[in-house]
Design a protein that fits this description.
By secondary structure, this protein is of the alpha+beta class. Helix content is 42%, strand content 11%. It is built from 14 helices and 13 strands. The strands form five sheets. Strands 1, 2, 3 and 4 form a four-stranded antiparallel beta sheet that branches. Helix 2 packs antiparallel against helix 3, helix 6 crosses helix 10 and helix 7 crosses helix 11. The termini are far apart. The relative contact order is 0.08.
Length: 426
């Protein structure tokens, strides 16, 4: 497109008492004339078109943001690994927030009730063409998203509680959508307007529904109350089943995501070095095994305490001595298998039959879900001044965990793990 167009200087059109300039198309040999009786307006028009010629956007056809939504969400639904149901719900929520009532699965691609869409600069967002979306407009949109409080009463968690979404999800969707569009030459997109937006802290309405979204049971109360709860729970589980005790002990020390624990295989645990590698995860809702963790930073190596190593070693010796325990080609040698020996433990069964059953027996008031153990570990470690982001997989800066599992300081990590273990096993 470069050097295809040539723009002339402004000249006077005396016959019609106007000022004009021309754009020559060297490829098609066409000439287009722009004129205006106001000299200053003619200058502004020329500057605008000159800028478009310089950056290669002059005379390009652009689709609307509404159409871009259609194409991107169609891509998500039809890709080799389709989006999950929860992700689909999030996308539908984002589309409704940004475009108004909108069903991206509708073959007719209807836009629905435009009155519910977001307005920027007096226009509905979806009416913009993608070449009109600049960083200032994206910033304005993100500010509007930040001020929206949205409660989707139809969305409920498995335990029947309400679902609350943060409007940061909508901003993230816009960012991902424009990144995807940059790779499509036919869309003529030259930049991602959301890339340079300085994100503020998005308004969360979880506080507005605090009575239905309480803190997890394991982190309620003071620091000593939390340690007392986990100590009683571990002891009760130990007296019932050593494998469940070993799994809960490991969980209570390293704070893994539930899917990372249930999918763990024996090759992830290095008995000699006392380290535990996170390499995969299990979708606890669908039972799908994924050979990569939830996030890029989720691939990491954790140093275990001496106490946890001792517990895991006893568990493994007992596990591998059982008759009939055999390897399954899909899962490998599971670290914490179900009774069949070759399938993962069901997350909800573990919550109901182990965590809540023995939690109630030792006087813990309320239900314990597996994820609350993760929050408990983060709370404990941050309370005693330890950095948790890298170990729990919440940052993409964990380079040492992503490449070759190199550990920067095993002795330091072991000392930190021993500190946590001394608190929960006292």
């Amino acid at each position: 497109m470069k050097n295809r167009y040539k723009i002339t200087e402004i000249r006077e059109w005396k016959v019609r008492s106007k000022w004009f300039f021309q754009v020559h198309d060297n490829e098609n040999k066409n000439v287009k004339r722009f004129s205006n009786s106001d000299y200053d307006l003619c200058i502004e028009e020329r500057i605008k078109i000159k800028k478009q010629i310089d950056n290669g956007t002059y005379n390009l056809e652009y689709i609307t943001v509404n159409k871009l939504f259609d194409l991107y969400l169609e891509h998500c639904l039809n890709r080799t690994k389709p989006i999950s149901k929860s992700c689909e719900i999030d996308y539908q929520y984002c589309a409704n927030i940004v475009l108004g009532s909108y069903d991206f699965r509708d073959d007719n691609k209807t836009s629905g009730d435009r009155e519910n869409g977001i307005k920027i600069k007096g226009q509905y967002f979806r009416n913009y063409k993608i070449n009109e979306m600049t960083t200032p407009l994206a910033t304005e949109l993100s500010d509007k998203l930040n001020k929206i409080t949205h409660y989707d009463g139809s969305t409920k968690t498995p335990d029947g509680k309400i679902g609350v979404r943060n409007n940061g999800n909508s901003f993230n969707l816009m960012n991902r959508m424009f990144k995807w569009a940059l790779g499509k030459e036919e869309l003529n997109l030259l930049n991602n307007p959301f890339e340079n937006v300085v994100r503020s802290d998005y308004h969360s309405i979880k506080a507005d529904f605090k009575e239905t979204k309480p803190d997890p049971v394991m982190v309620q109360g003071g620091f000593s109350d939390m340690l007392e709860r986990i100590g009683k729970l571990l002891l009760a589980i130990k007296n019932y089943n050593y494998q469940h005790f070993a799994m809960t002990s490991l969980w209570s020390e390293i704070g893994n995501r539930p899917g990372e624990i249930f999918s763990a295989t024996q090759d992830q645990y290095d008995r000699e070095k006392g380290i535990f590698r996170i390499t995969k995860t299990l979708n606890t809702n669908t039972g799908e095994l994924k050979m990569t963790p939830k996030t890029r930073a989720g691939k990491r190596t954790l140093v275990l305490s001496d106490e946890c190593r001792k517990i895991l070693n006893i568990h493994l010796d007992e596990l591998n001595s059982r008759n009939g325990y055999k390897e399954d080609f899909k899962w490998g040698w599971l670290l914490f298998p179900s009774q069949s020996g070759c399938t993962p433990i069901n997350s909800r069964n573990f919550q109901k039959r182990i965590l809540n059953r023995f939690g109630n027996k030792v006087g813990i008031d309320g239900n314990i879900n597996p994820h609350s153990l993760r929050k408990m570990v983060i709370t404990i470690r941050e309370s005693i001044g330890q950095d948790t982001k890298q170990d729990v997989g919440h940052t993409t800066q964990a380079v040492n965990d992503i490449y070759n599992f190199k550990l920067p300081n095993i002795d330091k990590k072991r000392k930190e793990a021993n500190t946590v273990a001394s608190l929960i096993h006292q």
